[in-house]
Amino acid sequence: MPSFYMNNQELLLTRKETSKTMGLAASQARLLTITARKSDCEYKSMLLSHQKIALSRDMSRLSAEYDDAIAQTKLVYDYYGNSEATPLTYNLMMTPSAMNNYTPLLVTDNGGRVVLDSRLAKAARDAGIPQEGLDGLPSSDLRNAFIDSLASTGYISQNTADNIKKTTYNQTAGVGSTDLININTTETTLSGLIEMLDSQYVDFSDAIIGTDNNLTYINQTDLYDYDKKQSAGHTLSFADILNGNIMYIVEGKKDYNNMTTVGGITDAVCNLTVWETMMSTFEGLLDTGDEYTQAALAYARRMITDKVTNLGADVVENNGKYDHTGAVGASKDPNDLQNSGGKNIIDNFGDWRGFGDKKASDGPRDAAYDSISADVIGMNGIYAHDDNGKDDDDGKQSYVTINISSMFKAYLTYFAQYMEGIGDSLYEVNNTKTSSNLIDELFTFTVVTDVDTSGDNLLIAAFYDTLFNQICTKGWTENDKVNDQDYMQESLKNGNMYISSLADDGYYYQGNYATHNYIKEITDEEAIAQAEAKYNREKEKLNYKENILDMKMKNLDTEISSLTTEYDTIKSVISKNIEKGFKRYEA
User: Is the pLDDT at 133 greater than 80, yes or no?
Assistant: First the structure.
């Protein structure tokens, strides 16, 4: 029988071997698949592990940022020395205000040059100031060009620029001058001063102005039978008041059983706005910036205030509540005005005078007006009575008057008296004009000219003169980022910028911010609160990401463990099949 023929037994064995061989191949293929999957899982797990390490670094960085943030400080300007400190900004230091005492507080670089924002730098260029500064002293033309440029960019208003240019340029402000204010002045006598004040007015809108012979009456109330000549207007100029004989009168009238008190109606005179108008106007014209002159103005203000504003209150407080005769518990005889309460008033307050010598039968208001003494400097107390020295139905009037013209002259007299020396001056203010030596043409006033002295205009002019001089003498550099509060404060704290301030000798010196009296470094509570909120928010995000990574890594670990088990099982099957195959062939 040919050899290629096999019996059934041999064929069966061949098929079994073939099946085993195919099973072994499938197992090996499965083993390769498991190995690939396991390697992929391990790779992904490694990536997740690296991401978790990155999260750990992010958390460390976040913690470091938080630690730095809770130590944050900020610079404040504590001018008033209380809890209302203001954040230190470039605008605060370089804009005139009461906060910086109308004196520039300069930001300077390492070379001492003034750091300017874009608008100030443009003004310096427009004025022709080189960045290294000028060799000589600047001129008023350069200063005015600098001011004009500031107005053109809106850094200051045109009105402010005009007022600054009207002042005499102070060439030494901030470079040796201890007085930064320098203004135009002229000398004049009383008549010249009155002429300057012709356009200044006092408003008496709640009163009626009338004339009678040489007196002008300003009445607080409309007297119903007042037959004096009345004007339609309600204002008087300073010139009219100083040249005239202006009396202000307040009438009080009540029924017989509830009569007006003299002390009560003084309030209308004491609280007139004319006194503040008078004093502030004179101060604006006479305040040349000299300390002695300012002291003289303060003295005149104090004396007028004591004479007018406080008198009515003192009358009531020290002498009780007066009936319209001025007497306390006395009869209504006009002589009692001098014999009892009225005498006390005269003794304690020499400015008070009482008059009651007219009869109500003459007409109560005629009697009152005829009793006015324009000679008195201070208040008049006036009472009209009937023939028997008692009130009738038409005579229940009490009046308080004051000569405003005399009070204006008294203010100027007090000023002149202080300027000459109170103990040396011949000028004097007594209870009456005839006993006084009031201001006259012999005194010379120094007055401010060509500038609006109202408000803080002189101080503002001095501020920009000082700033201009520093730019010219120290040089300048442009850095518009200084308007960013955080940038400027960090530059000051890390030493890239400095503070230059005016010393007592009139010069500017550069120093560290910590040496300045008003600049303080305090804990930045707001920044710390923001940093804490950011830290908590970012930490929560990182924790969330870390939890997701942990979950993915756990799932991968489970899958790797399962694949490892399956891998080991298949590998064991393959090993056994190979072992059986060798044993069979050996047999």
Answer: yes
